[in-house]
Amino acid sequence: MSIDKSKINHYFANHWKGMNRDKYELSSVKNILKHISVNDEVLDVGCGYNPFKEHLGNRLFAFDPAINSGDELTDVESFNPLNTKWDVVLCLGSINFGDADVIYPQVEKVVSMVKPGGKIIWRQNPGRQDHRNEECKDINFFPWSKEINELYSEEFGCTLECCEEDWDESKETHSRIFSIWVKND
């Protein structure tokens, strides 16, 4: 099943504000920076307002399909890495939209852009339409789970280093999944 990318891009460009990007404990900018070494080259897939640029400078390449704050305005399917591979790839809410027929090739593309031994750091929405606005209700969120992380990481030649529930600051109902995959040699 395909997804309506224009609807998703419209939502993120016009309704999503990204102001609380650090509301999740494990996938906050501060915590993610702890997983990035001083010499790591980093790719941010779906960078939104590009919060890592100020911390990583020229070691970061970032793109987004809806918000023109990165280095390129494009989606993961259209992005051409020109055979470049990164030490760390960030997917913090960007690979979440559609069913397995959409997500699986996106994950395959992300894994292909990571150096052997490199990491993919994820914030995944476990299928919740909990953005508290009407515009979000028509978006199909993929139901990420620990089981899917285990299955996909193995299928794509990665080791699942961690996969934990990532709570928002209220610790109530809006958790996500924080996951790190390490690409096998």
List keywords for this structure.
alpha/beta; Rossmann fold; 7 strands
User: How many strand units?
Assistant: 7
How many distinct domains? 1
CATH topology label: Rossmann fold
- Helix fraction? 10-25%
- For CATH, the homologous superfamily is named as Vaccinia Virus protein VP39
Integer-rounded radius of gyration: 15 Å
Q: What is the percentage of strand-forming residues?
A: 15-25%
Indicate the overall shape.
Answer: globular
In N-to-C order, the SSE pattern is HHEHEEEHEHEE
Write the layout of secondary structure elements.
Layout: H1 5-14, H2 29-33, E1 42-45, H3 53-56, E2 60-64, E3 72-73, E4 86-92, H4 100-112, E5 114-124, H5 146-155, E6 158-166, E7 176-183
Parallel strand pairs: 1-2, 1-4, 2-3, 4-5
Antiparallel strand pairs: 5-7, 6-7
Walk me through what this model shows.
This protein is of the alpha/beta class. It has one domain (5-183): Rossmann fold (3-Layer(aba) Sandwich). It is 23% helix and 25% strand. It has helices spanning 5-14, 29-33, 53-56, 100-112, 146-155, and strands at residues 42-45, 60-64, 72-73, 86-92, 114-124, 158-166, 176-183. A seven-stranded mixed β-sheet has the order 3-2-1-4-5-7-6. The longest helix has 13 residues, at 100-112.
Concise overview:
This protein is an alpha/beta fold. The protein has helices at 5-14, 29-33, 53-56, 100-112, 146-155, and strands spanning 42-45, 60-64, 72-73, 86-92, 114-124, 158-166, 176-183. The mean pLDDT is 87.
